[in-house]
Amino acid sequence: MRIRVAVAIACAFLLLCAGPARAQLDTATVIGTITDAQAAVLPGVTITARNVSTGFVRSGVTDGVGRFRLPALQPGEYEFRAELNGFGTVTRQGVTLTAGAEAVINVEMKPASVQETVTVRARSPVSSRR
Asked: Of all helices (H) and strands (E), which one includes residue 38?
């Protein structure tokens, strides 16, 4: 009987301590998945978070299944950029992070528009007057 009471008290103590410990987190984490227009995951995407008011920047790269994780971000308003060669850059502005939050930002990227540059290098014919 004494063992059951001791176990019950220990469990109650752990439950009471778990709540305040979570509340003491002073940073946020952002996770997400980056895909293309056909919902295929995109590995190797650089995702950058910039705190608008402080200028603090943290970057990460998506893994083999298109997931990323940016931990330990101070609370505040952020701008997120996703960049990958061959795709247009995607920017998300006005994302507000709060202390202890785990925000999910999923991004769909579209192929970059094709830009063609034609450079012509030729010599003009030399005319001779005789």
From this structure: none
